[in-house]
Design a protein that fits this description.
By secondary structure, the protein is an all-alpha fold. It is built from 14 helices and no strands. The longest helix has about 35 residues, at about 255-290. It starts with a helix and ends with a helix. The model has no long low-confidence stretch (mean pLDDT about 80).
């Protein structure tokens, strides 16, 4: 089976798994990952070696740009303190807690390596929660908080991840120069994102065809990310900044027809990327687990459960404390305990 045959089969499988998820009323990410695991057993499936840089360059830009572009900015402004706390404080708290548990479970691993693990696991993903909440009667405030958090926490976690990688590679011997270069990269990505966002907002306002509008917004997502990465800057910050500026300056002036058609195009693009991505995750899991053959499967299961529980408990405790504090310090419009529980 050739590579093209394998990719075509994976796309068909993603469609089938998505239909199964709808039939069972289960969030599609879970079914797609399990389905990817099942595909490993199909004879002739070619092993796909995923390069991290290529994966990020293909899957990340549209997701980041679309989330920032279509963010509920009025709702985000009202709950800016909660969103910032979830996307920044909670990310660092979860990363530190996971790193501590990893150091306990795996004695002798470098601290920076444990922080890398924490940075990877600390951000929440909005795909599964939004898929679940779409079937429930929840306020737009909850959806806004979850999507707003997903915009910012990816940025915070990737910045923390890069910092931890720098520390792991340098052994914290000479981290100052490397971290200084990282700061310049982030600042440069921010500046580039502002420039592309302003130019993109102008272009969006002058296009007269809804197909061109849809293609332009997709192109802007890849231009901001790949352009920044090519210049050695932060692609994540550039993409989020460009998408946010385009959404603030151009989206309010876009006609209802353009919004409708553009929304349909983006919905298909994001769903296709998520579906294909989750299937690929399932395909990669056996290889990843196989590389850990020096641990017993039972031991790995216990360790994975402990780390997952750590992530869940850190989020639940953080939201409980934050909600209690907001009710005490901001009695005019705090997030309710019910909304807090749903966000958690």
């Amino acid at each position: 089976m050739t590579f093209i045959d394998t990719v075509s089969l994976l796309l068909l499988a993603a469609v089938g798994f998505s239909l199964l998820a709808d039939r069972l009323a289960i969030p599609y990410p879970s079914v797609l990952v399990v389905g990817g695991l099942a595909l490993v057993l199909v004879p002739g499936i070619q092993k796909i070696q995923l390069d991290p840089g290529t994966v990020l360059g293909v899957f990340l830009p549209p997701v980041l740009f679309e989330t920032a572009y279509n963010a509920y900015w009025r709702e985000l402004h009202r709950d800016r303190l909660l969103i910032a706390a979830l996307a920044i404080l909670l990310v660092f708290l979860t990363a530190a807690t996971v790193a501590g548990v990893a150091l306990f479970l795996f004695p002798g691993i470098p601290v920076w390596v444990a922080i890398v693990l924490g940075a990877v696991l600390s951000p929440s993903d909005s795909a599964a929660p939004v898929a679940i909440l779409a079937r429930m009667r929840v306020s737009s405030r909850v959806i806004a908080v979850i999507t707003g958090e997903s915009v910012m926490n990816d940025t915070a976690s990737i910045l923390l991840y890069k910092t931890a990688i720098v520390g792991a590679l340098t052994g914290a011997a000479y981290p100052g120069r490397a971290l200084g270069a990282l700061a310049i990269s982030d600042l440069g990505g921010l500046v580039l994102g502002i420039a592309i966002g302003l130019a993109g907002a102008w272009l969006i306002r002058v296009v007269v065809n809804h197909l061109t509008y849809s293609l332009l917004t997709i192109a802007l997502s890849y231009l901001s990310y790949l352009g920044a990465e090519h210049l050695g800057l932060s692609g994540v910050l550039a993409t989020v900044t460009a998408g946010g500026i385009c959404g603030l300056l151009a989206l309010p002036r876009v006609s209802a027809q353009f919004r409708f058609h553009g929304g349909l195009v983006w919905e298909v693009v994001i769903f296709a990327l998520n579906a294909f991505g989750f299937v690929l995750i399932g395909l990669q899991l056996p290889t990843v687990i196989g590389d850990l053959d020096y641990y017993e499967p039972e031991t790995l299961a216990v360790y994975a459960g402990a780390i997952c529980l750590t992530v869940v408990m850190a989020r639940a405790l953080f939201l409980a404390v934050f909600t209690w504090a907001e009710h005490r310090l901001r009695p005019d419009a705090p997030i309710s305990w019910r909304e807090s529980a749903v966000v958690g």
